[in-house]
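Handoff note, outgoing to incoming analyst
You'll be picking up this chain. Sequence as last confirmed:
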Amino acid sequence: MAMISCILLSAGLSSRFGSPKALAKFTDSIIIEHEQKILINSRVDKIIVVLGARAEEIKPYLLKHKKINVVYNKDYKLGQTSSFKTGLKAASGSAGIMLLPVDYPFVKTDTINQLIEYFLKNNPPILIPTYQARRGHPPVFSSSLSKDFISLDNKMGINEVLHRYDREAVYLAVDDKGIVATFNTPEELAEIKSQFISA
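Most recent structure output, in case you need it:
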């Protein structure tokens, strides 16, 4: 069976948030714990957590599970592209690589499974979920694009590769508002929590 890895990006500076987004309070846990559970319960074979800024503070909240692998991006100050490349190097042998930034805490396990199922059946170079015609996370990339990502300049966004293969990318509509629910500030997190969590 083809292997699917998910790169969970948790290396950023979270400068606008003021403290690590990964450690923000969720409902009954903190965000990075919640996301690991979502992924562990999904059809993802390997979860690659990329740490960088404030790694020592985040490490205690990483779950001990056979699916979870932790890598450290020493160049985390160079941005998301460098962290994704660090994760990619740990994803060798995967047919597909999913990308989930830590600030998308409301993505459902069912959605992740739906994306994996579609990817394994159809093998598109890029699979992007959409909600009400808005693109969201996590996208899934074919391992055939790994060289494109690895050769990217760190100053360039991951979207650079998406633009290259835009005509071949597949957009999959999902019934999950969580794929577009992200945050940069405590106020934005409070706002999305109010939408998803009933009082």
